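Usage

Read records sequentially. Each one opens with the input sequence:
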Amino acid sequence: DVQLQAFGGGLVQAGGSLRLSCAASGFTFDDYAIGWFRQAPGKEREGVSCISNSDSTTYFADSVKGRFTISSDNAKNTVYLQMNSLKPEDTAVYYCAASPRITSAQAMGVMTMIRFWYDYWGQGTLVTVSS
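and closes with the structure output:
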Protein backbone atom coordinates (compact mmCIF):
# COMPACT_ATOMS: atom_id res chain seq x y z
CA ASP A 1 0.00 0.00 0.00
CA VAL A 2 1.12 3.53 -0.75
CA GLN A 3 1.83 5.50 2.39
CA LEU A 4 2.98 9.05 2.94
CA GLN A 5 3.66 10.20 6.48
CA ALA A 6 4.26 13.85 7.17
CA PHE A 7 5.72 14.86 10.50
CA GLY A 8 7.82 17.51 12.17
CA GLY A 9 5.22 20.21 12.76
CA GLY A 10 4.98 22.17 15.96
CA LEU A 11 4.82 25.57 17.58
CA VAL A 12 7.51 28.09 16.72
CA GLN A 13 7.97 31.82 17.15
CA ALA A 14 8.02 34.14 14.18
CA GLY A 15 11.46 34.17 12.63
CA GLY A 16 12.15 30.62 13.71
CA SER A 17 12.67 27.44 11.73
CA LEU A 18 11.15 24.00 11.41
CA ARG A 19 11.92 21.00 9.25
CA LEU A 20 9.10 18.83 8.01
CA SER A 21 9.65 15.29 6.80
CA CYS A 22 7.60 13.19 4.42
CA ALA A 23 8.34 9.47 4.58
CA ALA A 24 7.10 7.48 1.59
CA SER A 25 6.57 3.78 1.00
CA GLY A 26 4.70 1.48 -1.35
CA PHE A 27 5.87 2.97 -4.66
CA THR A 28 9.05 3.54 -6.62
CA PHE A 29 10.21 6.72 -4.96
CA ASP A 30 12.66 7.71 -7.71
CA ASP A 31 9.82 7.85 -10.26
CA TYR A 32 7.67 10.27 -8.30
CA ALA A 33 7.58 13.93 -7.47
CA ILE A 34 6.73 14.93 -3.92
CA GLY A 35 4.85 18.10 -3.23
CA TRP A 36 4.07 20.01 -0.07
CA PHE A 37 0.76 21.76 0.37
CA ARG A 38 -0.75 23.65 3.27
CA GLN A 39 -4.19 24.58 4.45
CA ALA A 40 -4.84 27.38 6.88
CA PRO A 41 -8.13 27.57 8.79
CA GLY A 42 -10.91 28.76 6.52
CA LYS A 43 -8.71 28.77 3.43
CA GLU A 44 -8.18 26.58 0.41
CA ARG A 45 -5.31 24.13 0.32
CA GLU A 46 -2.40 25.72 -1.52
CA GLY A 47 0.83 24.43 -3.00
CA VAL A 48 4.07 25.28 -1.25
CA SER A 49 6.86 23.39 -2.98
CA CYS A 50 7.66 20.39 -5.14
CA ILE A 51 10.69 18.26 -5.89
CA SER A 52 10.87 15.81 -8.77
CA ASN A 53 13.08 12.86 -7.92
CA SER A 54 13.64 11.97 -11.58
CA ASP A 55 15.68 15.12 -12.27
CA SER A 56 16.10 16.60 -8.78
CA THR A 57 14.59 19.93 -9.71
CA THR A 58 12.39 22.02 -7.47
CA TYR A 59 9.68 24.64 -7.50
CA PHE A 60 8.50 27.02 -4.80
CA ALA A 61 5.42 29.14 -4.42
CA ASP A 62 6.17 32.85 -4.38
CA SER A 63 4.99 33.10 -0.78
CA VAL A 64 7.82 30.88 0.47
CA LYS A 65 10.54 31.46 -2.10
CA GLY A 66 13.83 32.36 -0.44
CA ARG A 67 12.65 31.10 2.96
CA PHE A 68 11.87 27.42 2.36
CA THR A 69 14.04 24.74 0.81
CA ILE A 70 13.13 21.22 -0.24
CA SER A 71 15.38 18.20 -0.49
CA SER A 72 15.08 14.48 -1.05
CA ASP A 73 16.95 11.55 0.46
CA ASN A 74 16.30 8.76 -2.01
CA ALA A 75 18.02 6.19 0.20
CA LYS A 76 15.47 6.90 2.92
CA ASN A 77 12.50 7.57 0.62
CA THR A 78 12.05 10.83 2.49
CA VAL A 79 11.55 14.42 1.41
CA TYR A 80 12.32 17.33 3.72
CA LEU A 81 10.87 20.82 3.78
CA GLN A 82 13.16 23.20 5.64
CA MET A 83 11.22 26.26 6.68
CA ASN A 84 13.16 29.32 7.81
CA SER A 85 12.14 32.86 8.72
CA LEU A 86 8.69 31.62 9.55
CA LYS A 87 5.82 34.09 9.66
CA PRO A 88 2.44 33.87 11.38
CA GLU A 89 0.85 33.55 7.94
CA ASP A 90 2.73 30.26 7.48
CA THR A 91 0.47 28.75 10.13
CA ALA A 92 -1.37 25.82 8.56
CA VAL A 93 -1.68 22.08 8.36
CA TYR A 94 1.02 20.90 5.97
CA TYR A 95 0.48 17.91 3.72
CA CYS A 96 2.80 15.98 1.45
CA ALA A 97 1.64 14.32 -1.73
CA ALA A 98 3.11 12.12 -4.46
CA SER A 99 2.77 12.42 -8.22
CA PRO A 100 3.92 10.01 -10.94
CA ARG A 101 3.03 12.56 -13.62
CA ILE A 102 5.30 15.43 -12.64
CA THR A 103 8.53 14.49 -14.38
CA SER A 104 10.28 17.80 -13.87
CA ALA A 105 9.33 20.32 -11.21
CA GLN A 106 11.40 22.99 -12.91
CA ALA A 107 9.81 22.41 -16.32
CA MET A 108 6.25 22.17 -15.03
CA GLY A 109 6.67 25.11 -12.71
CA VAL A 110 3.49 26.50 -11.23
CA MET A 111 1.51 23.47 -12.41
CA THR A 112 3.21 21.50 -9.65
CA MET A 113 1.19 23.59 -7.20
CA ILE A 114 -2.09 22.16 -8.50
CA ARG A 115 -3.62 19.31 -6.52
CA PHE A 116 -4.85 17.61 -9.70
CA TRP A 117 -1.38 16.23 -10.44
CA TYR A 118 -1.05 14.32 -7.17
CA ASP A 119 -2.39 10.81 -6.71
CA TYR A 120 -1.44 10.08 -3.12
CA TRP A 121 -1.70 12.20 0.00
CA GLY A 122 -0.40 11.87 3.51
CA GLN A 123 -2.00 13.04 6.70
CA GLY A 124 -1.18 16.57 7.72
CA THR A 125 1.15 17.97 10.31
CA LEU A 126 0.27 21.22 12.05
CA VAL A 127 2.64 24.17 11.98
CA THR A 128 1.80 27.08 14.24
CA VAL A 129 3.85 30.27 14.09
CA SER A 130 3.28 32.70 16.92
CA SER A 131 3.88 36.43 16.58
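Summary fields computed downstream for this record:
- Residues 88 and 129 are 5 Å apart (CA to CA).
- The helical segments are 105-108.
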